[in-house]
Amino acid sequence: MKVHEYEARRLFAAYGLPVPASAVVETADAAERAAQEFARPVVVKAQVLVGGRGKAGGVVLASTPGEARTAASRILGMSIRGATVRKVLLAPAVDIARELYLGVVLDRVHACAMVMASASGGIDIEDVALRTPEQIRRQPVDPAYGVDDWQARALGFSLGLDGTQVRTFAGIVRGLVRTFGELDASLAEVNPLVVDRAGALHAIDAKLNLDDSALFRHPELAHLRDPTEETPAEARARDVGLSYIRLEGSIGCMVNGAGLAMATMDVIQHYGGEPANFLDVGGGASAQRVATAFQLILEDPRVNVILVNIFGGITRADDVARGILQARVGLARQTPLVVRLVGTNEQEGRALLAAAGITAVRGMDDAAKLAVAAA
Amino acid sequence: MSVLLDASARVLVQGMTGEQGAFHAQRMRAAGTQVVAGVTPGRAGVRVPGLEDVPVVNTVADAVRVHGANTAAIFVPAPFAADAILEDVSAGIRLIVCITEGVPALDMVRVLPRVRRSAARLVGPNCPGVISPAQRAKVGIMPWEIHRPGPVGVVSRSGTLTYEVVQHLSDLGLGQSTAVGIGGDPIVGTSFVDVLELFEGDPETQAVALLGEIGGDAEEQAAAFVRSRVTKPVVAFVAGKTAPPERRMGHAGAIISGGAGGAAGKIAALRAAGVVVAETPAEAARLIAARLG
Predict the structure, then answer these.
(1) Residue B134 in domain
(2) Residues A12 and A147 reside in one and the same domain
């Protein structure tokens, strides 16, 4: 789950990071008033959960309240990589001398939290990692134990900070590692961490991704989910335990298991078609869940054929067949249906479908070819 | 022989009094695996329908001491999975298979160092388990019927995609030495590299099917290991070529993030290491057959 910058700034500040004051507004009027209160040049920043907002014109420096109003009215409502801007953040502009990078990420290989720092802040850290990996310094950390002071100092000195700055920097690293560990984050990032012309450090941006699997122990963070991050259909799917992601193609897919669902999309493309969605009905899919999945797929107007690919294990093929039949009764529109059904209770499932005039095939490749031909 | 799991396994099932635990304990037994105890704290002595002769005990230590358990299958809810693993480690269990999905990543960060300091091997979490057909041994949830004994080692981050490839292999007359689902989470106890090393050293395994997917760099690590250490033929399939970036594709670990973890890079790394990469699961099985002549 991604957290908006303005919420992440609030959380980072609570962990002691030097986050400058800011205001979050939803109208140009309010932006002008906020800029007046700051009584100095401000930065107006689009609040969206996608990257690349600077390049898209979603971050603007405003010298006067009037300019802040103009900037806000232009940015609010703007679409950045598919995300509509509904809020902007205003913060006093900082007199930047240097832009550093500081982040804590989940390291899959070493099974630890990895603190990363770079003197090349402000830009895409993945680019730095790809082109000049030697410019990123790393320290592995056990978040339950915390970061050692020497690790934080080593990172600070590697960035060319002086002794006084390194003490401040070490406090920032400690706070960010605590944020990461205590909130069950998968990413906590300050990019850029700015050194101003007086030598002071400021966390002028904040990025925080939380582990969905750990939200059960952070009920106080659940409201930070932005409902517009998902489509309504995707949110409804999540509520009933389905994993659904809408794509651009015309072949609706319903599959059990995430890996097989991805493979089904790939095989459709291999045979010249385009998948309309990723949909994992999960293990032990009930007839009811299958019926809901069908409704979700058919709400996508681009879908003109549905491919069902079930490899029964825990999921029983006869349950899936009942779900398909149940779903077809109440549907607003009928689309061609290709069913691939094998595994547990396969014979019963095929018999149920056959009685309703639906033929199930046994091979995934055959099913994909049929679906592509019908699309 | 097989890797990780053989006929000597004496399995305890954590969460056997739950619906999933009970169902799969019966299926494991039906496959010929010895299920010697269920562990549910506070429910010792309970009889589970269909498993009346399998004692339920309060602690893993009891299951080990009284019933000789040496292998654990974990079906407890996600908030309790880390604790279940640590209880197994402390009781001296040698193979821990964690089926549970949705375990917080930082729970695994906390648990793994303790697993690695012990003699235990953890497979998962969020995995279908381990199966060694010739040994009649299964710890997990995969359908037994599609497997048969044979020379192919299978290792995968996915469940049903593994069954798909196993079915194709079996249809071609190619059985499996061991099939290992390492799990779809970002942090898992056993990696592709760990299992490749075991298959390389296993005389029964003559070829390996490696089923990867988007997210992380487990396939890149596997490729580097194959290049330097694996002499047996390896055929791979990588799921998610059509997956969009920045979206979690079902599995917690299956996400292309910041331009990293895409299928193209993984496929390129595997091919550069001499791994044959199939376009479809069915083709993966055919390519294995071709290599085994």
Answers:
(1) no
(2) yes
